[in-house]
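Dear colleagues,

As part of the handover before I leave the project, I'm documenting each prediction I ran so the next person doesn't have to rerun anything. This entry is a single chain, and its sequence is reproduced below.
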Amino acid sequence: MRTQLLVSIFVFCFNLVGTNAQICTPKGTTLDYYDLPAGSETEIAAWEQQALNWINTYLDTTTQYVKRIGPADGSYNCHSYAWHTSQNGNKDWLNAFLTTDLNNFNPYNQNATPPSPNNINKYWNDGSYVEVTSVSQAQKVWYGSNWTWCTQCWPNQWINLYDHSGTTTSNTNRYKSKWGFWPLYEHDYNACPYTSTSRKFYKLNLPITGDNILCTSNKSYTLTNNPSGTTSWSVNPSSYVTPSSGTSNPAVIHASSGSVSGYFNITYSLTTCGNATYQILSPSFWVGRPQSSSITATLRNWGSYWEIRYFATQIENVTYIWKIDGNPQEATGAFCSFIAPECGGDPALVFQDFNVEVSVINECDTSTTCNIFRFECGYTPTITMIGYCGGGNEEMMAVNEISILVTPNPARDYIKISILKNVIQIGNAIYKNITSNESPNTIIPYRLSIISNFGVTVFSSNLSDNSITIPIYNLMNGNYIVKLDTGFKSYSQQFIINH
């Protein structure tokens, strides 16, 4: 019963006559197409019922997905829909086999040699499409061609139960395909009247090429592989380049200004014979100065010493230049490292701040990022970003009885203010003078104040401990100063609130 129903589809697929239409692949290779009528109301109703009967007989619709998405129509078939009509092309009938091969083939002669699919394979043999191994990469699926001599058919004849094409969907196990004269369906790959064990997958092979970096000088972006037909193109975002659309191939464009920066794509539209239209999206290209890099830091313990490792954002087609405290580093990639300072000794290092600067350079311009990282000694050393900088190297030395440490900086919800006594400051490093006669833990009552950038005191309290934690969620964003008054001398430290 199944074979008889299938023969009603396939006989019409390869025994047709009609007016040859000029239909071609994206590269211009012509195919044998036929201009046929859609069918009478009676014929269409019969095809609809045949398809419904087959589904009800051979599919379990509780576990197999099949949905009718278009009516029965005798003017086009599976190959036409998959390779042409789904691209907004005309509704014409496309056989997998050449007309001359079909005309010379007697399907009722067991000794006849069945034809090869030399019509449909023009789509990939001329390079318009390329076979891929993953259905997720593909736009088209070809079920193959495998002729068998059918002794259950009356009369006995050659049939090809594989002869089918479809388009892929976002669900890798589900396709859209036309079933001969029968309706257009969306269905599971094996929920159709065709054998699915020899499927092959194809994607359009018309890449868009061009320079990865676009600056203010003209560059060309080409729809390659010799497409045949009329082209137009547009750029997204349109504000990034000039001109932002056109009809030439290649597209010749440049950055709209020296200040633009970001990724852009070009979409080519190619219209070929029979009104088939293909939309080809380019990979992402970069226009203007490179994006600013972020910097992160980690520590690695090598036993006898600690290594500080700095990582920049990995960006393609750029050069990196690193500076630490204004000193150029040998690193030219997205990674830079150096040996951390010694934590022991007399005086003993408490913490040291580093201005870490990375410049990202492409042929258009340079973007520079500078962060302040604090390396703190302790039972286990730590490295933390505490703010932003403008680069440079401070050459300074000061001997202080007291130093103020504010963490985190910038701060959002709270700050911890620590009082470091008997310290020496050299550049960006704070050392504790452990040979001092006065115990570092000796506390003198201090007056602690927090003053806004407008000179307003927003917090004031007597301090009788080495540290205090203060909530700041109710304070506005901006620059603030911690002021410590001992009665003999005042000390201050700036910090930033950024909620």
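The helical segments are 2-14, 41-58, 78-83, 99-103, 122-125. The chain is about 10% helix and 45% strand.

All the best with the project,
I.
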